[in-house]
Amino acid sequence: MFSHRDRNKQEAEASSRVSVDDGSGQGATIRFDGALDYAHAADLRQQVRELLRDRRGQAVILDFDRVTAIDTTGLALINELRSLGNGLDISLEMRNVPRAASMFLSMAQERHRETGAQRETLSRISRIGDSVLQVLRSMRHFTTFVGDCLLALFLSMVRPRRWRVAELMYQIERTGSDAMLLVAGLTFLTGIIMALQTASSFGSMIAPVYVADTVTLFTTKRMAPLLTAIIAAGRSGTGFASELGTMRVTNQIDALTVLGIDVTEFLVLPRIMALMVATPILIMIGNVAGIIGGALVGKWVMHVSYVSYFNEVRQGLAMTAIASGLLKGVVFGGIIGLIGCYRGLLVEHEAESVGTQTTAAVVNSLLAIMIVDAIFASIFSLHGW
Amino acid sequence: MGDVNNNSEKAHGGSGDAGDGQDSVVVENVRVGYGDNVVLDNVSFRIGKGESFAILGPSGCGKSTMLKIMIGLLPVQQGRIEVAGIDVTGAYDDAKELHRRLSRYIGVLFQNTALMGNRTIAENAAMPLEELTELPAGLIQGTVDLSLDLVGLGDYGNAFPAELSGGMLRRAGLARAMAFNPNILFCDEPSAGLDPATAREIDLVLHELNRDLGVTLVVITHELGSIQNLADRCLMLDKQEKGIVASGTLKEIRRTGDKRVKSFFQRRISREQREKMRKESSL
Lengths: 385, 283
Prior knowledge:
The complex is a heterodimer of chains A (about 375) and B (about 280). Chain A contains 11 helices and 5 strands.
């Protein structure tokens, strides 16, 4: 706080006020009394604004002679009154502003000018153009990244010595084993819900016949692959993005680059491969859990024996449905891994960027999963799968 | 030496042309920036083989940017950079190949050490050898043990980075940077944030590497202690100038009358400044 004069603290803490003297020939004088600080600034602001509005187009002197203390809020108020005076066409004169306070204000203005000059102001049209270019650049960048990954994959295929088996197993454990319970639990519950829904939709006479078929078909073809992919995007995709992002922030990526280690081969490929292996396995687990969920409802709600239920499952279970689910798993895993790693490597050297890119990773992954699932559905329906 | 207001630091003892093998680092008329924001412009200097060289300056003057362009992490907008005889400016079409070649000649000690948290210190130090060579595991282990002994961490090979103190982490980073016995070691603020005794220890290790192994040291720092302990020569960068404001030995730089150099070295508030502040506070 900038103390104005050598007055005691009690005086500074006493209530502050403004007074007006219209007697001077040079125009009205608005005099501040007491502390111009965060505790009093709001009241003073309201009073002075009203006083200034009443004196539109006139000359006004703001006198700070009796001010006992000013803090940053007080300085901001002085700045605001100056702008208000300009807006109201008032010839405003500041008198007896404490020297330290006026120095602080001029320093802040100088810094503002310096940084303001560097800021680029864009028109609305330029901003739209800029966004379009940004999107195109991102697409080009992502395509290059995918190309890099494919090249690294090809090179590791032709040089089996380069396979990082330990790293791959570690990533499969993280993305697969650790997510197993979650996937099983969710698909099991969804299997139960689906069976109950079938029972209530078809009625108690027909439902026992259809419950196994409905649960089996819907779980293997749609629900298990989609649910597993969503879980993988939320768990592993964001994990990859935040992990690689943090490595970027802490210079670990730079260190690897400088050491001559190929970041794509070393960090990205094992993660993507792990997810491409783990996701189909998780889908299989989801299939089983969903069907078991349906069986429990069949047994306890619709009184269908386990033998009849699983017989029905065996008849209704098409290999094409299982194969299509597994194929989706490989593709979804690859997409989630690619997007997660890509977003992680886009992080700049600041912590906030990790959060932004992690969010982008999950949003992009979910969008991509839905689009690809729709494409799969169209292709499979054309082939009658 | 000791030229002020000159972005080109010219000849120094024993230096020659880029290709004559006398210089470890050659920087010629370099301009670098981020988009339209130019950080350094028209910067030239050379660092001789076996020299201990410091790049100093206040925060935001472009020291870290200078480091990034020298180790090939950031392309220059104009000019030429050669490190260990490798053209760092012209090889951006194949950045991976550039870094693979460079990694045999340079080591980098990052300020936050950049060690991988899920690997032990020994595994971190072994990483470059495992990834880039065909050496058998036993030989890699032996090399890593030697490197860790060299920096005084022989007993900590199985520790994870999170288990070590700041000074030990710097040493571990140094062990990894020394994996290929590089000719040039770049250090980004090697003793920043350490207590004086630990900082002195790190400086001592670096000094020994330079003196005994002939490693060229390029130290980016604003720590006066480190500059005094390590640098044969230094250059000072400035934000307003966007380049070099002084270069030479520490003594030569300190003798220059340039205001920016003076204010960098003079942390103490002058009598006039104190007097001015007292007057202002009594108002």
